[in-house]
Amino acid sequence: MKHSSLILSLALVLIPRVAASQDEKKWRPYQFKGNERYEYKVVMVDGDGRKEMGYVLDIRNKGAEDWDVTTSIRNPMKKAQGAEVLMGGLAMGLSPAMFLMNPLFSAFLEQVELKEGEKMSLLGAGVVKVTKKETVGGRTGLICELYTKVENKDVLTWSCTVDPELALPIRSITFEEGKEKTRMDLVSYKKD
Q: Is this prediction's pTM over 0.70?
């Protein structure tokens, strides 16, 4: 009886730790800590043209339940351009954050165990594959690739590199017809 109560006590102590360590291998997108600054280099490809810009997201703790969020876009432009200056140089004023991470995809990514070789099927519509580690902007993460079914073939649609310590990917690449369409690379991350 002493042994069974000792084993039960040990199990009660270890099981939460095992569960916690398993949770640590999963990513929690959009779970900001506050007082963080993300800076990205953005490259958009349109036909033969490339447009490069910068995107900064700064999140400050304002109170127990509130954030103070500031975003900025650095965009090279010709002096002769007019309305584009107000819209950040993007059509209809879209933010580069739209290309950083699709909330629909993040729901799948947070379910995938961040381990090289891991795969998760998306109910016959595609698959998420965790491939290898890479370093971007001084941070190391795992590459997660989203393949969707197109004419019964798995086609790479999106790739992002996830550092589980951060709320956003350190790299995000969208693909169209097998070619890179947008790329966002973390330049720096600061937490104070």
A: yes
